[in-house]
Amino acid sequence: MGKFDGRVALVTGAARGQGRSHAVQLAREGADLVLVDAPGPVGSVPYPLGTEDELAETAALVEKEDRRAVVVAADVRHADRMRAAADTAIGEFGRLDIAVVNAGIVTYHQLADMPDQAWQDMIDVNLTGAANTVRAVLPHMIERRYGRIVVTSSQAGRRGVPNLAHYCAAKWGLIGLVKTVALETAPHLGITCNAITPGGVDTPMMRHDEVYRTFVPELDAPTVADMEERLRQMNPQPITWIEPTDITHAVLFLAAEESRYITGSVIDVAAGFNANNVA
Ligand SMILES: NC(=O)c1ccc[n+]([C@@H]2O[C@H](COP(=O)([O-])OP(=O)(O)OC[C@H]3O[C@@H](n4cnc5c(N)ncnc54)[C@H](O)[C@@H]3O)[C@@H](O)[C@H]2O)c1
Fold first, then answer.
1. In a domain, 133, yes or no
2. Are the C-beta atoms of residues 176 and 247 closer than 8 Å to each other?
3. Are 43 and 119 a contacting pair, CB within 8 Å?
4. Does the pLDDT value for residue 96 go beyond 90?
5. N or C: which terminus of the chain carries fewer CB neighbours within 10 A?
6. CA angle 64, 68, 73 (to 5 degrees)
7. Mean per-residue pLDDT for 124-133?
């Protein structure tokens, strides 16, 4: 018997990386899935985002676990598309129990010379997109007085990070959103809303030249190996990467029935990087 037998979960950013890991593990534990991703290009993002093919691959992995997957190619920036995605869950499965609010982007600029588009895209995707997702699922959860909302913030939502003012602002904003939704839904008893704040996770978001240049600015053409060396120096626990599955364990914990009195909380999965945070 799976931990999530009979449950239905919506996962944004499900085409790859952490979102795919969360979706497949939820399916392994019995959940049916609504998978949202493939937004097309986002103007200021220099690396490719998830595609419809990758989204279909995640769906195939869910189906391999003998669960159903419905794919929604949508951009979380569009509130109406997110409402339609939530309605799809109800239409296809008759319920929506879990929302994993995971879609996100990253770009790197000092605030003094950050292009307007970079600021706007970041807030639109990482903050408004997440809010759109939570707003879309909440009415269904409130109606049924049951829901588990898990939002992916970041260690950059717990401290300042040079080159990431826009990302930090969005990810700190998500903590405020989560705590507020936790208070607003607390009277319904069955609904919880929590955040996870990962450290450096090995996903496509972190494997391209702009990241390597930002982490190792003293080299002209740093490689992934140079950046990995820097990550090893940064992490108190002696590791290079956190794996997507490490984040998934925390998602599944917060999505479970047993976590019913955990709401408005933030869980660091960051190899000790969080231990220096003041918040
Ligand atoms: N990788 C890390 O080191 C790290 C650390 C802390 C937090 N995070 C956060 O974890 C989450 C997952 O990222 P990941 O590491 O799996 O990276 P990723 O780039 O592999 O996955 C992110 C997914 O979100 C999707 N997405 C982006 N913008 C979208 C939009 N507008 N509409 C719909 N989908 C969109 C992408 O297409 C992609 O498939 C993000 O919110 C990210 O900010 C990542």
1. yes
2. no
3. no
4. yes
5. N
6. 105
7. 98
One-letter identity of residue 15: A
Q: Is 201 in the pocket of ligand 1 (CB under 6 A)?
A: yes
Please give the tally of structural domains in the chain. 1
pLDDT band at 278 (very low <50, low <70, confident <90, very high): confident
What CA–CA distance (Å, rounded) separates 8 from 27? 9
Whether residue 2 has pLDDT greater than 70:
yes
Q: Domain span at residue 69?
A: 8-202+243-271
Ligand 1: atom nearest CA of 129 is 31
Summarize pLDDT for 233-273 with one digit per residue, the tens: 999 999 999 999 999 999 999 999 999 999 999 999 999 99
Q: What is the pLDDT of residues 67-76, one digit of tens each?
A: 999 999 999 9
Q: 186-222: per-residue pLDDT in tens?
A: 999 999 999 999 999 999 999 999 999 999 999 999 9
Task: Please name which of 194, 180, 188, 82 lies closest in space to residue 143, comparing C-alpha atoms.
Answer: 188
Q: Which of 166, 203, 212, 227 to probe ligand 1 with, by most ligand atoms within 8 A of CB?
A: 203
Q: Whose CA is nearest to atom 41 of ligand 1?
A: 104
CATH code for the domain of 170:
3.40.50.720
For ligand 1, atom 43: residue with the closest CA: 104
221: in domain: no
The residue ranges of DSSP E strands in the chain, in sequence order, are 8-12, 32-37, 69-73, 98-101, 147-152, 191-198, 266-269
Q: Is residue 223 part of a domain?
A: no
Indicate if ligand 1 lies below 6 Å from the C-beta of 20.
no
pLDDT value, residue 250 = 98
What is the per-residue burial (b if ≥16 Cβ within 10 Å, else e) of 66-89? Answer: ebebbbbbbbbbbeebbbebbebb
Q: Which residues does 145 contact at the CB level (< 8 Å), separation at least 6?
A: 188, 189, 190, 191
pLDDT band at 1 (very low <50, low <70, confident <90, very high): confident
Neighbouring-strand partners of residue 8:
32
